Amino acid sequence: MERGIVVVCSARNSGRKPSTVSNDAPWILTVGATTIDRDLQSNVVLGNGKVIKVQTIQSSLYNIPLFTF
């Protein structure tokens, strides 16, 4: 993170172990996508030792309108 800008990237399930995601660039915060309908919570430990509590934001995929182009 430089100048307060966080770079976020979505990833597919291609990490080193099953159910993991990865990105080769160390400055990118990598997140995974899912269709699971439950809330997940975890802690993110930063390099300076600070711990941030995070939670998924879930919405039902069935209520999303479909658009065709």
UniProtKB/TrEMBL annotation:
Top-level class of the enzyme under EC nomenclature: hydrolase
GO BP annotations listed: proteolysis
Enzyme Commission number(s) from the entry: 3.4.14.10
Protein name, as recorded: Putative tripeptidyl-peptidase II
Annotated keywords: Hydrolase, Signal
Keyword Hydrolase among UniProt keywords: yes
Subcellular location: Secreted
Organism of origin: Medicago truncatula
Family: Belongs to the peptidase S8 family.
PANTHER family referenced in this protein's UniProt entry, alphabetically: PROPROTEIN CONVERTASE SUBTILISIN/KEXIN
